[in-house]
Design goal:
The termini are far apart. By secondary structure, the chain is of the alpha/beta class. The longest helix has about 35 residues. The chain has two domains: about 140 residues, 3-Layer(aba) Sandwich (D-Maltodextrin-Binding Protein, domain 2); about 90 residues, Periplasmic binding protein-like II (D-Maltodextrin-Binding Protein, domain 2), CATH 3.40.190. It is globular and about 60 Å long. Strand 3 and strand 4 form a beta hairpin. It is about 40% helix and about 25% strand. One of its GO terms (biological process) is amino acid transport. InterPro entries: Bact_solute-bind_prot3, Solute-binding_3/MltF_N. It comes from Mycolicibacterium wolinskyi.
């Protein structure tokens, strides 16, 4: 009988040891995970690396002085300020945004990243900081008057962008002409190498401002109305939580409204507040 009791006590002790070890391991995993977060790194090094466009107005451009400016640049600078860090910009393109995150070449990408479901399968996307749609721009004297008229026409878009996806899925009769940068698409339209250009509402607003009466926008509803988010590498919930909190506070601020009006000509939409 005593032997049985001793065996039972030994078994209970062994079970307790396993449970205790499990708790200790879990407790240690939490702080370690925190220390490995981009948030901890940025707070320690006081340096934030942000992937941005350098040639996609009004989101991001490099001006004649070699400095970045634009709608997304405002967001990046405000984020760095909130962290007490200096910001370092790394130029990206539509096609290189996700690889840049996957290879940790940027702590965050702020480059008009539409939060598509397929993107959310490979990178983590924040709550939206902007909303937009896609429009078609043509030369002022173009016979193209509707989306149906794009059949058989050459339409410029940037590689890896939402317009490129739309052209493939919804305009199979059109002839996509894909470029690496928005500036190349605009130049192709300007020089007559393409019949039309499909871009976001924000980029189209800038094209209209720069090209004036030389172009016009098709009088049709915006395609693929969407939301735009920051992108970060998968698996860092602490960093994602911080960014979501930052965007929530930023979008209701005067700074956000001023930026929206400066670059997009409108107040921050209620949809993203």
């Amino acid at each position: 009988m005593r032997t049985g009791i001793r065996a039972a006590i030994a078994a209970l002790a062994a079970t307790a040891a396993v449970i205790t070890a499990g708790c200790t391991s879990s407790d240690q995993a939490g702080p370690a995970s925190s220390q490995n977060s981009v948030l901890s790194k940025v707070l320690t090094t006081k340096k934030l690396t942000v992937g941005v466009f350098a040639d996609a107005p009004p989101y991001g451009v490099m001006n004649s002085s070699g400095e970045y400016e634009g709608f997304d640049i405002d967001k990046a600078r405000a984020l760095a300020e909130s962290l007490g860090a200096e910001v370092e910009f790394v130029s990206t393109t539509n096609a290189s945004r996700i690889p840049m995150l996957e290879t940790a070449k940027a702590d965050v990408v702020i480059a008009a990243l539409t939060n598509l479901d397929e993107r959310a399968q490979v990178v983590a996307l924040t709550r939206p900081y902007a909303s937009e749609g896609q429009l078609v721009v043509v030369p002022a004297d173009s016979p193209i008057r509707s989306y149906d008229d794009l059949a058989g026409r050459t339409v410029a878009a940037t590689r890896g962008s939402v317009p490129a996806t739309i052209l493939e899925a919804e305009f199979p009769q059109a002839k996509p002409s894909l470029f690496e940068a928005v500036a190349d698409s605009i130049q192709a339209l300007r020089s007559g190498k393409v019949d039309a250009l499909m871009e976001s509402t924000a980029v189209v607003a800038d094209i209209r401002a720069s090209e004036g009466d030389a172009v016009r926008v098709l009088d049709a509803p915006a395609l693929a109305p969407s939301l735009v988010s920051f992108g970060v590498k998968m698996g860092d919930q602490l960093w994602l939580n911080y960014l979501n909190n930052f965007i929530m506070n930023y979008n209701i601020s005067k700074a956000a409204n001023d930026s929206y009006n400066r670059w997009l000509g409108m107040d921050v939409p209620d949809l993203i507040k």
